């Protein structure tokens, strides 16, 4: 019988430990993510103890001397990781400083975004106003993606242009297009497609960050008031959305050009940048950018963009399936380990238990004696010279066989070497179940 997650052609003693566990890269990534969720703020950081239903605030931005207005929002903005007191989960709080929301009705602008769940959009949870920062602040709450960096941090911090692999660009394009398609279908516009407002996690997974902020902020400004006001012409709002969607397509094109040329300055000399793209990339990529950068028109839409991406979406889908297979493989190894952990715990409950009821010999007698010898057989093996053998593969193989309760027999020897027992894993499994049942029956109600 093939044992779970053990290769059939390799001797158990020759298999590396990594066969039995989640891969080092994935483990390290997950550990870093967990650490990031619990990272403490640097000493002397002044943050409120709690804001609305969130506490444990930890700043995510670099410490700044002063809070200059953010270029995108027009107001200073700072980001925090914080823990929700409602569900204990970490969230990302974006505070817009010193922003007075004139009309609570403006909050309706975030409602439409709260319903959007998309793998390439950072989900918006809620927005609220607060005085807990000592001013009138507006706060947007998003999902927290530990260890995320922005596209700006990942691709534009160096002071020289670096060309990007085309496959990576198409992957970004497919993901951004998927996000925009959902946004536009929901009669909304992203409005912000800036490298500093796109998050990257893992290898190349990206998410649009900061959705809804401009919708809410401009709602309170005179420009939007008329279109959102009760009784306003519905077509006025639809027109405005259509215009903002066209701007999304332009910004999308600019983003690709700057990524392809490896510099934000490339947008200041567009013709030169497009010429560079002709030399370095496929005609399809340039064609895509030309379409996105073309003059807005009622017929220009995400549908056409999707058609232009065409077969490259299949590459993206295949890559995702492959990544999913790897994850599933890693997950199954960990599920096996969880199962074995339960068996080892059961042995721990029984072995060396000093007393059960009035019986001080319980763990040394009957079925339990076999379990004690089995424990020695699994964990306390020595070589000919009596030196300890720490063979993980042996432990896992034994525990897998015990779990399966197979008929294979093994020889168990007492510590003094005076007695030997030949028992099948099936019998050891029965002993374990019986001893555990006896322990369970003693648990007070
Ligand atoms: N939802 C999130 N989950 C995890 N980290 C986030 C999230 N949103 C932002 N961050 C991190 O917080 C930091 C600040 O984000 P922000 O959007 O302010 O970027 P920025 O580069 O400081 O841009 P700006 O100059 O516009 O303030 C970034 O390092 C970013 O990676």
UniProtKB/TrEMBL annotation:
<feature type="binding site">
    <location>
        <position position="94"/>
    </location>
    <ligand>
        <name>ATP</name>
    </ligand>
</feature>
<dbReference type="InterPro" id="IPR011009">
    <property type="entry name" value="Kinase-like_dom_sf"/>
</dbReference>
<dbReference type="Pfam" id="PF18101">
    <property type="entry name" value="Pan3_CK"/>
</dbReference>
<dbReference type="GO" id="GO:0031251">
    <property type="term" value="C:PAN complex"/>
</dbReference>
<keyword id="KW-0067">ATP-binding</keyword>
<comment type="function">
    <text>Regulatory subunit of the poly(A)-nuclease (PAN) deadenylation complex, one of two cytoplasmic mRNA deadenylases involved in mRNA turnover. PAN specifically shortens poly(A) tails of RNA and the activity is stimulated by poly(A)-binding protein PAB1. PAN deadenylation is followed by rapid degradation of the shortened mRNA tails by the CCR4-NOT complex. Deadenylated mRNAs are then degraded by two alternative mechanisms, namely exosome-mediated 3'-5' exonucleolytic degradation, or deadenlyation-dependent mRNA decaping and subsequent 5'-3' exonucleolytic degradation by XRN1.</text>
</comment>
<feature type="binding site">
    <location>
        <begin position="143"/>
        <end position="150"/>
    </location>
    <ligand>
        <name>ATP</name>
    </ligand>
</feature>
<feature type="domain" description="Protein kinase">
    <location>
        <begin position="65"/>
        <end position="313"/>
    </location>
</feature>
<keyword id="KW-0547">Nucleotide-binding</keyword>
<dbReference type="InterPro" id="IPR030844">
    <property type="entry name" value="PAN3"/>
</dbReference>
<protein>
    <recommendedName>
        <fullName>PAN2-PAN3 deadenylation complex subunit PAN3</fullName>
    </recommendedName>
</protein>
<dbReference type="GO" id="GO:0000289">
    <property type="term" value="P:nuclear-transcribed mRNA poly(A) tail shortening"/>
</dbReference>
<dbReference type="Pfam" id="PF00069">
    <property type="entry name" value="Pkinase"/>
</dbReference>
<comment type="subunit">
    <text>Homodimer. Forms a heterotrimer with a catalytic subunit PAN2 to form the poly(A)-nuclease (PAN) deadenylation complex. Interacts (via PAM-2 motif) with poly(A)-binding protein PAB1 (via PABC domain), conferring substrate specificity of the enzyme complex.</text>
</comment>
<keyword id="KW-0175">Coiled coil</keyword>
<comment type="similarity">
    <text>Belongs to the protein kinase superfamily. PAN3 family.</text>
</comment>
<dbReference type="InterPro" id="IPR000719">
    <property type="entry name" value="Prot_kinase_dom"/>
</dbReference>
<feature type="binding site">
    <location>
        <begin position="196"/>
        <end position="197"/>
    </location>
    <ligand>
        <name>ATP</name>
    </ligand>
</feature>
<keyword id="KW-0963">Cytoplasm</keyword>
<feature type="coiled-coil region">
    <location>
        <begin position="311"/>
        <end position="349"/>
    </location>
</feature>
<dbReference type="GO" id="GO:0008143">
    <property type="term" value="F:poly(A) binding"/>
</dbReference>
<dbReference type="GO" id="GO:0006397">
    <property type="term" value="P:mRNA processing"/>
</dbReference>
<feature type="region of interest" description="Knob domain">
    <location>
        <begin position="350"/>
        <end position="445"/>
    </location>
</feature>
<keyword id="KW-0507">mRNA processing</keyword>
<dbReference type="GO" id="GO:0004672">
    <property type="term" value="F:protein kinase activity"/>
</dbReference>
<dbReference type="GO" id="GO:0000932">
    <property type="term" value="C:P-body"/>
</dbReference>
<dbReference type="InterPro" id="IPR041332">
    <property type="entry name" value="Pan3_CK"/>
</dbReference>
<dbReference type="GO" id="GO:0005524">
    <property type="term" value="F:ATP binding"/>
</dbReference>
